[in-house]
UniProtKB/TrEMBL annotation:
Gene3D superfamilies: Metal-sensitive repressor, helix protomer. Belongs to the FrmR/RcnR family. Pfam families: Trns_repr_metal (PF02583). This is Metal/formaldehyde-sensitive transcriptional repressor.
Length: 90
């Protein structure tokens, strides 16, 4: 089972993001001025970055920092993290 399963802090972040995205949708539908829309987009982006940082740090600590996993598992996890980071940073 994933170490993120049932993590209340992560779920709270996602729910906050959901609210921000819904507010953005309403702003776009309601014809809000550009400044309000840009601010909402920045809030969504910040929330996504915070979520990514938290999950990534947890993953690194759990999978790459653990002395319990084999070298092969560690290398596979490292490649997975690098692939995700490359995609995220595009």
């Amino acid at each position: 089972m994933s170490h993120t399963h049932g993590n209340k802090k992560l779920l709270a972040r996602v729910r906050r993001m959901k609210g921000q995205v819904e507010a953005l949708e309403k702003a776009l539908e309601g014809g809000s001025d550009c400044g309000a829309v840009l601010q909402q987009i920045a809030a969504v982006r910040g929330a996504a970055n915070g979520l990514m940082n938290e999950v990534l740090e947890s993953h690194i600590r759990e999978h790459l920092g653990s002395h319990v996993v084999s070298e092969e598992e560690r290398q596979a996890d490292l490649e997975q993290v690098l692939t995700v980071l490359r995609s995220y940073l595009k």
